[in-house]
Design a protein that fits this description.
single chain; 464 residues; Aminopeptidase i, Domain 2; 2 domains; nine-stranded mixed beta sheet; six-stranded antiparallel beta sheet; Peptidase_M18_dom2; aminopeptidase activity; zinc ion binding; Peptidase_M18
Length: 464
């Protein structure tokens, strides 16, 4: 008779089984991660870090490669916002590839094309929020401004204000509780309107200027003195208001990381580290870092673009001159993938939204999510049982702590990832990532243990 403890499934906790050596590894990995995510405040800066780390690890821009052989390491970039790193496998592409796809974009506030105005002696920037946010969370917190401005003279200027020591910060004001009677009875979705998310940027007038525009003109003067830009240059700019400050430890025990943008840059970093440490995979290993996931994966830098197809074509043509478009889809049909994205963890303060039996916990390890979507599994990839079994066995064989998760109760809401777009290309794919508390908030919380197990899972996958 089989023993009862072998029949029953039991959840595991990474910390409970971690020895002193593993604890040190977890903490050291988290320090490197905090450094990365502190500097990755925009998709452009995130991609820049990815490329710099890849080049330092021996990856070569594919334009510099005429022929590719097993073990070669190549980097393919597009528009400064999307990148693929590949390690050529021992087997040919006809055996398929191992792909891990994550996204670099995060919820934020974008400056409008005509952002600058003056009202009541104060200067503001108008913004348009990007992705799913709770608007009230962005009021009265320190904000930084990052991005680029393409000037009329053809020069591109990078702007970064609010994250260096001594920098000023910006903020969005809120109504004092003494006068907020009408605001306080509104629904949370209505208490703050999108057009109220105006960034306070100054209050000092230009001496001798027109009183009605003196503060605005002082802001334009300062911007021109420091960056050479004019008001019209905002039309050709990508400037993002994001929470100011570095990633930090959370808790007396420092067991968690608090940072802006962990959805999905925690999976970006863990898959990046995994591909950098992959040397001789059986199948060609590809780490894909895409843009625009938070708004539907649209555009030429999103997953719905053709960047992945083009990247595989670039690789294939350097391995076999006869490689063509039909070959691309034959490769995809034999390929396996992980959609590397975060999921919700049980929060004891908000227990009602998750079904506990199938929800992820902080400290429970990397999360495998068979399906996402909403209500009746709409708009999702639903991984087949054979592929779930493959991943389950891979994680168990490598003694990686893992758990399953769902994105909320069946009728509560839901969400999606890039998994269904990868599946449409022919891949076997499943979601696999880190559980978070306060997802999409200006400060998101992840367990250092889960981050480390996610990195180990991705590394094992590339070696499968």
């Amino acid at each position: 008779m089989v023993k009862a403890d072998r029949l029953k499934y039991s959840r595991k906790n990474v910390w409970e089984n971690a020895g002193e050596g593993t604890m040190q590894e977890i903490m050291a990995f988290a320090e490197d991660y905090k450094t990365f995510i502190t500097c990755a405040k925009t998709e452009r800066s995130c991609v820049r870090q990815i490329v710099n780390m890849a080049l330092a690890s021996g990856f070569i821009p594919i334009e510099q490669c005429q022929n590719l052989r097993p073990g070669d390491r190549v980097c393919i970039t597009g528009k400064g916002k999307i990148v693929a790193l590949a390690v050529i496998g021992q087997q040919g592409l006809e055996k398929g590839i191992c792909l891990i796809g994550s996204h670099t974009d995060v919820p934020r506030l974008d400056l409008k094309p005509h952002p600058l105005y003056q009202e009541e002696g104060l200067a503001f920037f108008k913004t348009h929020y990007y992705g799913g946010i709770k608007k009230y969370q962005w009021l009265t917190i320190p904000l930084a401004l990052h991005g680029i401005v393409c000037r009329a003279d053809g020069q591109t200027v990078e702007i970064s204000i609010g994250d260096r020591p001594g920098d000023p910060v910006f903020t969005i004001t809120d109504l004092l509780p003494h006068l907020a009677k009408d605001q306080m009875v509104k629904k949370l979705t209505e208490a703050v309107e999108g057009e109220q998310l105006n960034l306070l940027i100054g209050g000092l007038p230009l001496q001798g200027g027109d009183k009605d525009n003196a503060v605005k003109m002082n802001m334009l003067t300062l911007l021109h003195e420091n960056y050479g830009i004019t008001e019209e240059d905002f039309i050709s700019a990508e400037l993002e208001a994001v929470p100011a400050g570095p990633a930090c430890d959370v808790g007396l025990d420092r067991s968690m990381v608090g940072a802006y943008g962990q959805d999905d840059r925690v999976c970006v970093y863990t898959s990046l580290r995994a591909i950098l440490e992959t040397t001789a995979p059986a199948r060609t290993a590809v780490a894909l870092f895409v843009d625009k996931e938070e708004i539907g994966s649209t555009g030429n830098t999103g997953m719905q673009g053709r960047f992945l197809q083009n990247a595989v074509a670039e690789i294939g043509s350097r391995m076999d001159p006869r490689f063509n478009e039909l070959a691309i889809y034959r490769v995809f049909a034999k390929s396996i993938a992980l959609s590397a994205d975060v999921t919700a963890a049980v929060d004891p303060n908000f227990e009602g939204v998750l079904e506990k039996l199938n929800a992820a916990r902080l400290g429970g390890g990397v999360v495998v999510t068979k399906y996402t979507g909403a209500k009746g599994k709409y708009h999702t990839n639903d991984a087949n049982a054979e592929y779930v079994a493959f991943l389950r066995n891979l994680l168990n064989q490598n003694q990686i702590t893992w758990q399953t998760g769902e994105l909320g109760k069946v009728d509560q809401g839901g969400g999606g990832t890039i998994a269904h777009m990868i599946a449409e290309l022919g891949f076997e794919v499943i979601d696999c990532g880190v559980p978070l508390l306060s997802m999409h908030a200006p400060l998101e919380i992840a367990s250092k243990a889960d981050i480390f197990e996610c990195y180990r899972a991705y590394k094992a996958f590339f070696g499968a």
